[in-house]
Write the structure tokens for this entry.
Amino acid sequence: MSKRTCLRIIALGPSCSEAPWHEEGKDTWGIQYTWRTWKLDRAFVMDEEEWIKAKNHSFSIPIDIAQEMRDAKIPIYVAKKWSDVPNSIEYPIEEIKNFFLGISYYMNSIAYMFALAIKEGYTRIETYGVDYRYFGDLGNKLGYPDNWLDETHCGSFWAGMIIGRGIELVITKRSSLLKPLSPGDPCFYGYSVSEQIHKQRKHILENRKKVELKQIPETLQVFRPPKGADLKEFIRQVELGTVQPIGNVQTKLATDTDETVEVEVKTMGDSTVTP
């Protein structure tokens, strides 16, 4: 496969304002609506047709997304061919799946764009507006604090795929790709610690000290494997956090005058639990 050179990918995050309108010798791909502002070579509208049309018609000023796509007069990749958009092209999903054997992780349009760019042999990929900033305070205000984390993680995975294949990747400062959740936090574990992690560690140590000083009881969780379950697999699931405890055990630490250590078992719907 002959190597292509530079590709620009434009999405709708705040940093899209940094994207040049067009530059000779550099291909430009964008997601829906970016054709309004930039000269694109290709666009991607990977949302389900019924959903994206309904969403655009629900706006206070309805948008005919199909008409916009026709007017763009460029190839537009979709999951399935739109009968009313002649310039729509079905994304080569089977080719991509065969090219990236064992990978089934495409949580947004950017993932499809990254995958196709890798397959087509670009040596440099610039991203603009690929920010994934709808979490934290902004996400809470919008009512979906965790909605974009799936997309952020997937985008970072494909960014890692790009770098791992020796392709130069350019990310804007405002993007959250390959960056800590809190902007500006350290990125080298073991060498520096963020203020948030420092507070969490301090809290852990303070609670640990209270337990050792017998100021608060130590609480342990109780897990019971189902009858006939594979014990190693059950322990693995417990470590992954996919198994719910059947009860809590609060220990009453022994004093100098205690002959035994007493335990209090608080069960959750299972009166047969014992420590």
The helical segments are 49-57, 65-72, 93-99, 109-120, 137-142, 149-164, 195-212, 231-240. The CA atoms of residues 77 and 187 lie 36 Å apart.
